[in-house]
Each structure stands twice: as C-alpha cells, then as structure tokens.
C-alpha cells in the first residue's frame, strides 16, 4: 500500500509539471523557431493565455477538480471574453460564470462604457498625448526614458481595460460590475515594486502566486521569487527584453523586501513592503518620518520603472538597440543603486 501511494504521488506530481514543461517548450519553439516572427509577435499573447489555462487546469485536476467534458473544455479555452486580450481565468471562475449567469442591470452598461472610455483614453495617451504631457523639447535622457516607459505603460493600460470590458460583456465581474485587471494609479505612484507587480496584471499575479510561487516557496523565498519571474518570462516566450525586465524586477523586489524588513525590525517601524494588517510597531505609518522613508522608497521604485521601461518600447523589433545599449545610455544607474541597497542589508 505504501509503495502504491508513493507511485500514485509521483504520477500526481509529474502530471502538472509535464504540462508546464510542454507548454513552455511549445512557446519557446514558436519564439525561436517559427519562421514568421511578425505573426508570432502579434499572436504571442493568445498562446500565453492558452498555456496558462492548460497549466492551471492540470494543477486543479490534481487537487480534486472534476475533469471537464470536451465541449466545456473547449468553451474554457476559447472563451470569447478573454481568448484575444486575456486575462487568464481559472476553470472554476469560468464555470461559475457559465452556470450562474444573471440578467445585467443598467449599471453594468454604464460600467462597461466607462471602462471602454478609459481604454481609449490610455490608447490616445500612449500614441499621442504622452508627447504633450511630457514634451519632447526637454532634452534630458532620463525625461526621454520616462516618456518612453510611460507610453509603454499606457499601451498596457489600454489592453488591460479593453480586456476588462470584454470580460464584463462576457458576464464576468462582481456585484459592483467590476473585473479589475490593472490599477494604473498604484503603478504610476507605487509604494514598492511589489505593488507594481501585483497591480500590473492582477489575474496573472494570482496565477503565478498560486501555481508557481507557492509551489517553489518550500525551497526558499529568494528561489521562489526568482523562479516565479523566470517562469513568467518563459511563458512570455523568453523574449530577451521581457526576460531581462522580469528577472531584474525579481532581484530588485527581493532587495527591496529584504531592506525594508531589516529597517522595520531595527527601528520597530512599519516600513515593510506591505502594510501590516494589525500593526504592532512602535512607529506607525501615520508618523511623518515613516511617511518620508516610504516616499524615498516610492521614488526609487519610480526610478527603477523608468530604467526597466526603456527596454519595453521596442520589443519585437529586430533593428532596435540592444539591452546593453539601452541600459548603457542610462549608465546602468538603477543596477548600481540596487547594489548599494543590497550592501546596506548586510550592515
């Protein structure tokens, strides 16, 4: 009986990991072998969402979820609400919306229109208005880098709000007719890199946390962080720019987390990356000095976003400057700052 249980456990462990491996190998083959790269760049997101659905379903099946029928599985994989623009949803979430659909109220129409207007506002901001908000006449490499990074982020907000609108049209959302995918305010005015990562793509954050981070956490916090960002970059096809950004964010997040934890312990102050649910620190976040320190970390995060964002404005263009050239233009300053902060954690 013991041997049989061990064999059964090994089969359980292997099934979902094999699914992860097959999906990642397929994405990598498309990224590096597929002959028409222009077509692949335009359709990469579709395959990434499909891979995430397959992986999450395999994990859920091993955790006791029933095996869906072929037509239900096809509906999940080809759900019109998210097959084009995302986001990822779990099979349970899809099934609840499929079985428990309700008549929508007029507030749902207003909410959908509001989200669509936000989407096209950020589209305009990405293509046109960013030049007005941040004039190109300002001849400064950091201002120029911020403009490019801001334009890229606005294009992400456009897609995110457009996908939120399609999800609402597909019957998804809570009682307030909301299906939040991104939070631009938390990204543009972040308290830490962790808040940026969480708010950038909330459904994908849930996927990575549940099916990747918590699976690797038993090997240690640092390995779990880097492993999560590595898997995320592989799901993106291991495009070099995206991989460099994601792995760098992982390393930066670890340094920031470690430093703020050290400061919180040393000074008995509420300086952790995330606010305490029940704060027992001597110095609360309402303290003006604590607010000042958190503001400094927020400025460092914005600075890091500028540095990282310059890689993303030309992803997929073969004639674009290399990663080394782009970061070299900014003197690799963000790396030096993070190295300094990392050294401080040992003091």
From TrEMBL:
The keyword Ligase does not apply. It is found in: Membrane. It catalyses: [Wnt protein]-L-serine + (9Z)-hexadecenoyl-CoA = [Wnt protein]-O-(9Z)-hexadecenoyl-L-serine + CoA. Keywords: Acyltransferase, Membrane, Transferase, Transmembrane, Transmembrane helix, Wnt signaling pathway. Its EC number is 2.3.1.250. It is an enzyme of class 2 (transferase). GO terms for molecular function: palmitoleoyltransferase activity; Wnt-protein binding. It is a multi-pass membrane protein. One of its GO terms (biological process) is lipid modification. The chain crosses the membrane at residues 16-34, 71-91, 111-138, 237-255, 292-312. GO terms for cellular component: endoplasmic reticulum; membrane. Belongs to the membrane-bound acyltransferase family. Porcupine subfamily. This is Protein-serine O-palmitoleoyltransferase porcupine.
């Amino acid at each position: 009986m013991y041997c049989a249980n061990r064999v059964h456990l090994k089969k359980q462990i292997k099934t979902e990991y094999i699914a992860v491996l097959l999906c990642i190998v397929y994405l990598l083959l498309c990224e590096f072998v597929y002959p028409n790269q222009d077509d692949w760049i335009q359709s990469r997101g579709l395959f990434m969402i499909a891979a995430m659905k397959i992986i999450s379903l395999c994990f859920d099946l091993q955790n006791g979820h029933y095996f869906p029928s072929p037509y239900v599985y096809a509906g999940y994989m080809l759900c019109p609400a998210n097959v084009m623009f995302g986001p990822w949803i779990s099979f349970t979430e899809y099934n609840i919306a499929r079985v428990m659909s309700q008549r929508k109220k007029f507030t749902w129409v207003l909410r959908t229109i509001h989200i669509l207007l936000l989407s096209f506002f950020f589209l305009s901001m990405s293509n046109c208005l960013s030049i007005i908000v941040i004039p190109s006449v300002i001849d400064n490499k950091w201002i120029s880098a911020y403009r490019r990074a801001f334009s890229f982020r606005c294009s992400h907000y456009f897609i995110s709000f457009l996908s939120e609108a399609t999800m609402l049209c597909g019957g998804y959302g809570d009682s307030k007719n909301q299906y939040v995918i991104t939070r631009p305010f938390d990204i543009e005015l972040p308290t830490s890199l962790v808040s940026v990562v969480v708010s950038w793509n909330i459904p994908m954050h849930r996927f990575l946390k549940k099916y990747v981070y918590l699976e690797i956490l038993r090997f240690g916090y640092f390995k779990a962080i880097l492993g999560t960002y590595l898997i995320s970059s592989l799901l993106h096809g291991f495009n070099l720019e995206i991989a460099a950004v994601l792995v760098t964010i992982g390393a930066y997040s670890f340094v920031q987390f470690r430093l703020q934890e050290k400061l919180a312990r040393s000074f008995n102050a509420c300086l952790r990356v995330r606010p305490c649910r029940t704060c027992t620190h001597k110095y609360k976040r309402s303290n003006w000095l604590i607010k000042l320190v958190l503001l400094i970390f927020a400025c460092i995060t914005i600075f890091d976003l500028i540095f990282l964002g310059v890689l993303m404005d030309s992803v997929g263009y073969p004639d674009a400057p290399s990663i080394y050239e782009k970061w070299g233009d900014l003197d690799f300053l963000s790396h030096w700052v993070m190295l300094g902060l990392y050294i401080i954690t040992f003091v």
